[in-house]
Amino acid sequence: MKKSDVSVIWSSSTDSNAFHDNQDSIKVIKSKNICAIADGVTGGIKGKEASEIAVNVIERYDQSEEIEKQLVSFFKKSDNRVKSLSTDMNYSATTLVIGIIRDNMVHFGSVGDSSVIIKSKNNITCLTDSDRIGMAGLLHTIGTGFSTIHYKAISVTRHDVIIFSTDGLTDNLSLEEINHIIEKGTPEYYASELVNVAIKKEYKKDDISVITAFIQ
Hints:
alpha+beta, Phosphatase 2c, domain 1, 5-stranded antiparallel beta sheet
């Protein structure tokens, strides 16, 4: 089995101030430097079950295989499995982001409006293309036969921080606020600190989930 040459400090946290049970799911496999985060679509059915199915596909990640090919396979498998939750009367759907850190690169795929943000020494940037269409909803989701996976691979260096989040974070905190929290925090607690501040903002009541990866 191939070992990653990148040392990472992971943190993760999820909470909710919405008027329903938390529909988000998160998963981190630290030994393989892979993570997944998903946000069950509130308008559908079985949102929590859908997001759990989606993140659990990364359990089959093989470090010896080509990354982009595996990511595409994970998204297709999760889509098929979440589709099975739908009924003739209603659908089940979720967003999904999967991130893999290997060989000084972060590879990620996304469907929906969950985000990947990278904070480097002098900059913070959102890397994902959102499938949100204003107030109308999402153009692509897992479980409804998405047609596009947004895939990117970005170089990372020591002390970069990669932030994977559901939209509850980015709807409540600006990139500048996220940057300030990271600069004042510690790697083991980045995720919980971001979630705790976002919960208190309450611009948008929602489930808020965060995974962070600090490159040592």
